[in-house]
Amino acid sequence: MVRSVAYLPDSFLETMRAAMPSHLSFDDFIAACQRPLRRSIRVNTLKISVAEFLQLVAPYGWQLTPVPWCEEGFWIERDDEDSLPLGSTAEHLSGLFYIQEASSMLPVTALFAHGNQPQRVMDVAAAPGSKTTQIAARMGNQGAILANEYSASRVKVLHANISRCGINNVALTHFDGRVFGAALPECFDAILLDAPCSGEGVVRKDPDALKNWSAESNSEIAATQRELIDSAFHALKPGGTLVYSTCTLNREENEDVLAWLLARYPQAVEITPLSHLFAGAELALTPEGFLHVFPQIYDCEGFFVARLQKTSAIEGLPAPGYKVGKFPFTPMKNREAQAVVQAAAAVGLEWDESLHLWQRDKEIWLFPTEIEPLIGKVRFSRLGLRLAETFNKGYRWQHEAVIALASEKSTHFELTLAEAEEWYRGRDVWPENPPARDDVIVTFQGHPLGLAKKVGTRLKNSYPRELVRDGKLFAGKA
Question: What gap in Å lies between CA 454 and CA 434, rounded to an integer?
């Protein structure tokens, strides 16, 4: 397939010439913009270690090159890309890796730099979920993440990616990110604001990204970004870390937004320089200590990352102008909760004290305890994991809970490659030697695919209809 030539307006090139430091070649910049973007993936360490993943995919002949700023990140080259999309491989379907652009791994690396281990994190503009899932992996599914997305249609995609990766510590909200400073002042140990931007850095992926580019539009976007970073800064606890990032390249949406915040709160904010974030970081370092990544530096998307520390409290914003409404869940009583814990353990589902049982009618959910203090202060679209529904004969365990909570100690039933393909296509499986148990967690490559009920000699498929796949699945060995 012939790739389109990236559209680079003259006025954009003038802006880039002014923004680019003198040690970089402008001709190299233009040449990089016209090259196709390298594919990259991030291993999901909630499910598999990097070493185990590399061993698992070694027979496929994938060429994996480490991303310098992310231990779990790799650029990937494959011979069978046309016949089998990366998203249809077994390892992707079972959440062992996430398809993520290498540059977009930078903000989370910056957030956790210097041994930072926050317990409550907000991702202000979270969809489709690459950074949220990366944060969850760095947190080891402990603590809690509030993942916000303004676009209603993208919240569903965000939830699907969180579920596939086996994440249980996320609360989803659907708001304009400018509400959080007033709604949740000084509530977060760390905040990632990957701000909506003009997208100048993505032309390698989308050659038409700059079709509607204008300096006036950049100025309008920068005004929104200033309001977003101001709100995020109010929502941050004193001593907390704020990472601001964009996938754009002009100074107005990047350095100038940070300069505005520093001028607004000179006694309360400090820059944490990113000069030692990874080997080679100095190549993209600005005089202020930010990373301004032009695409030719590391052969990736253009990106900008800044890390700030909130050194003291600031005066709060006015109270939010909306009603939260009555929270429809109640905590489960001890005896009922114990019955759920025992029934879940019987099918191989386990969790620790970082999750609490809550109930709404016949629905049973697990909420991250670290998010519970925020209940009543903000309206959630979805909170934690939907564990089960109660019915006359017991519990109907939910797919997302099976993927997130399947215990390695419990008895699983490993499917063959052919059976696993049938499972992902939503069909029942007829194993040669059916399991002894009536309810069993089925796995492939040792990782859970879902919960099956034995009916005679077949395993009844419970894979959600919206996730069913057609076409070729799974990688073949080289």
Answer: 8
DSSP state of 312: S
Task: Determine which helix (DSSP H) or strand (DSSP E) holds 307, and give its type and residue range.
Answer: strand 303-310
Is residue 368 within 8 Å of 167, Cβ to Cβ? no
What CA–CA distances, in Å, run from 168 to 116, 309, 411? 21, 28, 22
Cβ of 467: how many Cβ atoms within 10 Å? Answer: 14
Q: Which among 478, 407, 475 is positioned nearest to 93, based on CA atoms? A: 475
**Backbone torsions φ then ψ of 293, nearest 5 degrees:** -95, 100
d(CA 423, CA 418): 9
User: Strand 385-391 to strand 363-368: parallel, antiparallel, or no bridges (unpaired)?
Assistant: antiparallel
pLDDT, tens only, 53-71: 999 999 999 999 999 999 9
Phi and psi of 240, rounded to 5°? -80, 170
In 3D space, the residue among 86, 98, 40 whose CA is nearest the CA of residue 67 turns out to be 40
Residues in the chain: 478
pLDDT tens, position by position, 239-293: 999 999 999 999 999 999 999 999 999 999 999 999 999 999 999 999 999 999 9
**306 closest CA partner among 338, 357, 272, 281:** 272
Question: Does the pLDDT at position 27 exceed 60?
Answer: yes
Beta bridge mates, 239: none
- 10 Å CB burial of residue 218 (0-12, 13-18, 19+) is buried
Which of these is catalytic: 33, 70, 197, 247? 247
Nearest to 137, CA basis, from 163, 104, 157, 167: 167
The Cα angle at residue 458 between residues 453 and 459, in degrees rounded to 5: 35
Distance CA 300, CA 294 (A): 8
Q: Would residue 165 show up in a list of annotated catalytic residues for this protein? A: no
d(CA 335, CA 177): 40
Residue 59 CB: number of other CB atoms within 10 A? 11
Looking only at Cα atoms, what is the longest distance across the chain? 73
CA dist., res. 233 & res. 182, Å (int): 11
Cα gap 112→244, rounded to integer Å? 13
CA-based nearest residue to 134, from 173, 107, 114, 159: 107
pLDDT digits (tens, 9 = 90+) for 339-350: 999 999 999 999
Give the residue among 294, 273, 270, 299 at the shortest CA–CA distance from 284: 294
Dist. CA 108–CA 145, nearest whole Å: 13
DSSP SS3 for 401 = helix
- Report the C-alpha gap between 132 and 178 in whole angstroms: 19
Among 229, 171, 168, 170, residue whose Cα is nearest residue 197: 229
The answer to whether the CB of 140 falls within 8 A of the CB of 112 is no
